[in-house]
Design a protein that fits this description.
The chain is α+β, with helices and mostly antiparallel strands. The chain has ten helices and 17 strands. The strands form two sheets. Strands 6-7-8-5-1-4-3-2-9 form a nine-stranded mixed beta sheet.
Length: about 375
């Protein structure tokens, strides 16, 4: 387990201080329906909106939140806009992983000096509630990082948005914050080097082909995190195998690199998954045999194994502790973006011991789609 002293040391020596993920923006072909999906299934609620009613003539955006999780779901009113072109190519997918910083100008300057891809120089959005500073750095595929500074703003989300008052969902899905975003690319080392050099992220885990494989396919992963340990990006590359890997399938249908899955953290995964399933989320199936072997593989855990079996929750243990995790099926017809629900009991890993079970579950779905 990471000690408080280790975390404070990493922050002191942080090359480019980034506070946290401010929001994850998803471009959607039908933002209103996507918002219904996020709210009704994940138990989030709309907190802010901009669209025709607020004077936005080209773009509609909904801010949906739960705990520290914040998504912005954006769509377009016309077929020839950047949003429409993005959705035509990728389907509904993550466009922007916005990073909250305390000084946009300085962060942007340093990032560009270190080789960051400059897309939009620092600018200000303002209204009667103050101002928000932003800049945009390019990254893998068609994804971007908006750098955002909000210290001088007291309004709802950002200028141009109006507040939305909604009641709390009846069912608590118990998800609390972003744990990590997994990124599928064709050149893992290129983008690992990019995040280390430009943003000061550090390598924390590495899995080679022989570590992460099934009998049919494999992949390679390097996991990075920022100085205060709040942002984690596993960067994944397909590796040669007998059949097409889940990573290659993603790249084929996404038409390039992108965010494969968003991992949402919970403090009670049994409650979270139980309620998410009741809401309609479909998760990958895990055979009963996995749970028969679980006590010998991971040792004593607090959660009843019969409950984990009923809900298809996976468990993995390392030197620091253990974690529990489960993966949803893709959120759209394209076999691209999906979600992970994760609870950490000391472990800072990503479930390496579950790779075979996960691979086999995903390959069952690939076989149904005729893509294995």
């Amino acid at each position: 387990m990471i000690t408080q002293q280790e975390q404070e040391t990493d922050q002191i020596h942080d090359l480019l201080p980034i506070e946290d993920i401010d929001y994850v923006e998803v471009y959607s072909g039908n933002a209103k329906q996507a918002v219904f999906y996020y709210c009704k299934l994940f138990g989030m609620k709309v907190t802010a909106y901009k669209g025709l009613e607020t004077g936005s003539r080209n773009v509609v955006s909904y801010v949906v939140e739960k705990g520290e999780i914040r998504f912005v779901i954006s769509g377009s009113f016309a077929p020839d806009t950047p949003i429409a072109e993005f959705v035509k190519k990728h389907g509904d997918a993550v466009k922007d992983i916005a990073l909250r910083v305390d000084n946009v100008e300085e962060t942007y300057r340093q990032a560009v000096e270190r080789g960051g891809i400059p897309l939009v120089e620092p600018f200000i959005e303002e209204d009667e509630h103050g101002q928000v500073k932003k800049a945009v750095i390019g990254t893998f595929g068609d994804t971007v990082h908006t750098l955002i500074e909000r210290s001088a703003y007291s309004g709802v989300f950002a200028p141009g948005f109006q507040s939305v008052e909604e009641e709390e969902p009846e069912i608590d899905t118990a998800i609390t914050r972003f744990d990590h975003l997994a990124i599928n690319v064709e050149q893992m080392d290129t983008w690992t080097d990019y995040y280390e050099k430009v943003f000061g992220f550090k390598l924390i885990k590495e899995f080679r082909k022989e570590d992460v494989s099934s009998d049919s396919s494999s992949l390679m992963t390097k996991a990075l995190r920022n100085g205060n340990h709040r942002i984690k990006f596993p960067i994944v590359e397909p590796a040669p195998g007998k059949k097409k890997s889940q990573v290659q399938e993603f790249i084929d249908y996404n038409l390039g690199a992108g965010v494969q899955h968003v991992a949402l953290e919970t403090d009670n995964i049994v409650q979270a998954v139980d309620n998410l399933q009741k809401n309609g989320i479909r998760f990958l199936y895990t055979p009963d045999a996995y749970y028969e072997l679980l006590p010998d593989r991971v040792g004593e855990i607090e959660e009843p194994i019969d409950e984990l079996n009923r809900l298809n929750i996976l468990v993995d243990r390392d030197d620091e502790g253990y974690l529990l995790q489960i993966f949803s099926q893709p959120m759209q017809d394209r076999p691209t973006m999906f979600f992970e629900i994760i609870q950490r009991k000391g472990s800072n890993g990503f479930g390496n011991g579950n790779i075979r079970a996960l691979f086999e579950a995903v390959e069952r779905e690939q076989e149904k789609r005729g893509n294995l």
